[in-house]
């Protein structure tokens, strides 16, 4: 069982949830009792128990050091897992470099603002893990664990991640990438429609958007809300401050996604939304739309409820179209399929064999 460690005893939690649900008349009682969605066949809570028992310690200890230097990397790693899972499933395909066959997922517009450092961190973790255990752990699993540790080490809930994902052999096209990652200009209707195709409901949409409690966004992701005219759902003072950061629609600056506690994984993102201080249309409209507004409010007043729902939705997201069993492969390098590497080494082997024969 994955358990969100939020510090409350379960009976206190249940009564808190009941009270908040009664007060807010929210949708949320449905799956309150269940903190873990069903596991996809092939994934398990103990997948590397014998083949790589130190896996999670290696990753957590390394990330503690990385975040001590720059906590911003936590946001980069959380977003990387989301972008991996939404396009072609959580198969590490977002990690692949482009090849002669064409540009990779990485090169598609929504992925250009993924942090270059996040890709380096995943490959570094992979090297450390493979050094300890051999090539048994997938890049997709390492990305899922790194996302969890990013949440926890930023102040969010700790939770167990089902493991056993395999790495995909190829990346998605630019078109598929664009079609699967919603734009920040999306309204709630567009988000609900888009995420419903992945079996994610309104509570999942609001909970997952809470990932925006950490990290940054570029001006170009939200200046359509400032120029030529100001979005009426945006707080006026907030807008005037954003205009200082982004004096033109195309300024290459960044700003925090959560103005209250930009580096802490907490529920302040929802408080921002209630104060009309959401950065993207896709954020702010969750409070404007009457279908999602009660969910936003319930998370703003109850961080424990948010953490619980976030974990549940992350576990759903983290199992989207995963490869398991004998599907895919365990990459030796997260940026390239093994065929690219083994082709070169098999030529070397052949040459060695040839010279030995003579
Ligand atoms: C629901 C639809 C979503 C949209 C439209 C969206 C859009 C965006 C955009 C436009 C950025 C900023 C890119 C830039 O300008 O540099 C961003 C950043 C971010 N997103 Fe989302 N996102 C969504 C869902 C999610 C989810 C599900 C998560 C994780 C659970 C997430 C986590 C993040 C994080 C942590 C950042 C900051 C990254 C950094 O600082 O490097 N987002 N998102």
UniProtKB/TrEMBL annotation:
The record marks 79 as: Transition state stabilizer. One of its GO terms (cellular component) is plant-type cell wall. The active site is at 83 (proton acceptor). Its cofactor is heme b; Ca(2+). It is found in: Secreted. Belongs to the peroxidase family. Ascorbate peroxidase subfamily. Belongs to the peroxidase family. Classical plant (class III) peroxidase subfamily. This is Peroxidase.
């Amino acid at each position: 069982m994955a358990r969100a460690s939020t510090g409350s005893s379960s009976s206190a939690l249940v009564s808190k949830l009941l009270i908040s649900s009664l007060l807010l008349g929210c949708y949320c009682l449905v799956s309150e009792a269940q903190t873990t969605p069903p596991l996809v066949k092939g994934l398990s809570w103990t997948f590397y128990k014998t083949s790589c028992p130190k896996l999670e310690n290696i990753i957590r200890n390394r990330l503690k050091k990385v975040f001590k230097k720059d906590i911003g990397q936590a946001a980069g790693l959380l977003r990387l897992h989301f972008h991996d899972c939404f396009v072609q499933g959580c198969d590490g395909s977002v990690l692949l470099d482009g090849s002669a066959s064409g540009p990779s997922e990485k090169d598609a517009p929504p992925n250009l603002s993924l942090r270059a450092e996040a890709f380096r961190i995943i490959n570094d973790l992979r090297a450390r893990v493979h050094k300890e255990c051999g090539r048994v752990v997938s890049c997709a699993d390492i990305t899922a664990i790194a996302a969890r540790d990013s949440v926890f080490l930023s102040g969010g809930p700790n939770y167990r991640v089902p493991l056993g994902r395999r790495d995909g052999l190829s990346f998605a096209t630019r078109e598929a990438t664009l079609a699967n990652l919603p734009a920040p200009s999306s309204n709630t209707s567009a988000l609900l429609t888009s995420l419903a195709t992945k079996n994610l409901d309104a509570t999942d949409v609001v909970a997952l958007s809470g990932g925006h409690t950490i990290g940054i966004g570029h001006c170009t992701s939200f200046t359509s809300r400032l120029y030529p005219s100001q979005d009426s759902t945006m707080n006026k003072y907030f807008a005037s401050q954003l205009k200082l950061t982004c004096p033109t629609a195309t300024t290459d600056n960044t700003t925090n996604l959560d103005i209250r506690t930009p580096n802490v994984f907490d529920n302040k993102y929802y408080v921002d939304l209630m104060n009309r201080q959401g950065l993207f249309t896709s954020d702010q409209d969750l409070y404007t739309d009457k279908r999602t507004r009660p969910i936003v409010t319930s998370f703003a007043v109850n961080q424990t409820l948010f953490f619980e729902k976030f974990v549940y939705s992350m576990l759903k997201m983290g199992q989207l179209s995963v490869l398991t069993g004998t599907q895919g492969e365990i990459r030796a390098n997260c940026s390239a399929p093994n065929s690219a590497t083994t082709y070169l080494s098999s030529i070397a082997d052949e040459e060695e064999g040839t010279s030995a024969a003579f």
